[in-house]
Amino acid sequence: MRTYKIAMIQMDSGESREDNLKRIDAFIEKAKAEGATLITLPEVMNRMTADRTIDTSEPLDGPTITYMKGCAKKYGVWIHCGSIREKQAEGLPYNTTVLLNPEGEVVTTYRKIHLYDVDIPGKVTALESSRNKAGDRVVSAETEIGHLGMTICYDLRFPELFRLLALQGSEVIFVPANFAYATGEAHWEALLRARAIENGCYIIATGQTGQKAHFKAYGHSLIINPWGDIIAQIEKDEAMAIATIDLDLVSKTREELPSLKNRRPDVYCLETTKV
Fold it and tell me: For 30, 40, 71, 98, which has the most beta carbons within 10 A of its beta carbon?
């Protein structure tokens, strides 16, 4: 399948997992009716609480991914599940994305590698590593709808991850996010367009929106083609947008701007093991 429609669903996820999932189901039903083959969701799409002491994590066979498997099978669509906090038997949870096929089967999972830790005295302290455990694998998947690469939110600021995904063959790279408004307004679009242009791929960046307990989420979900053009966007509302993925455009762009072929691995090295 060289062309197909993708639907991104920008969420203002709240504290009720049941309400969030019901709204997602309604969006997926609409996306299917409009011809979408693949649906993508934002980071922590299932539940966000004001009290960070509340354990919102759950295993991958828990209620959220089980529900999403049912949606994939019911509507016969691929679903990139944004991310959830994945419960572990011991220790902190992972921030994990799951890709489902139209049979409701797990195709691959990715655990967020880069965690946002910053401590500037008198200004800001944010230690994501105090709440989540970091993943340790670069993940992409070869599927009938293209080679799909996985990232989550803060990963966006690490171009080497995107280059590794492109070298693995990724034609479409997901960036589910919960970006804060200040950094989003300054950097979000510029970084996303750069990642698309650098690697000659589609970037699918689906975000949280709305006022959260500890910050305002930026929203502004974007789908960007390999030339760096924005082909779909959502600004501030909880909403859905649809665009067409053309995998032939990826091949064409990489032929005309062969930055992947023109690399100098004899001078520098960037490699990882595909999983």
Answer: 40
| Positions marked active-site | 43, 112, 153
Q: What is the pLDDT of residues 145-187, one digit of tens each?
A: 999 999 999 999 999 999 999 999 999 999 999 999 999 999 9
CA 204 – CA 143 distance, rounded (Å): 16
Q: Whole domain around residue 31: which residue ranges? A: 3-256
Whether 274 is covered by a domain: the verdict is no
**219 part of a folded domain:** yes
Question: d(Cα 207, Cα 174) in Å, to the nearest integer?
Answer: 11
Q: Count of domains in the chain?
A: 1
The whole-model pTM stands at 0.96
DSSP, residue by residue, 106-168: EEEEEE-----EEEETTTEEEEGGGT-BPP----EEEETTEEEEE--GGGGG-HHHHHHHHHH
Which H or E run contains 201? none
End-to-end CA distance of the chain: 23
Rounded to 5 degrees, φ, ψ at 189 are -65, -40
The Cα-based distances of 99 to 11, 60, 121, 148, 151 in angstroms read: 18, 12, 39, 9, 12
**77: domain CATH number?**
3.60.110.10
Residue 229 lies inside a defined structural domain of this protein: yes
pLDDT of residue 79: 99
State the pLDDT at residue 120.
84
- Please give the distance of CA 196 from its chain centroid, rounded to a whole number: 14
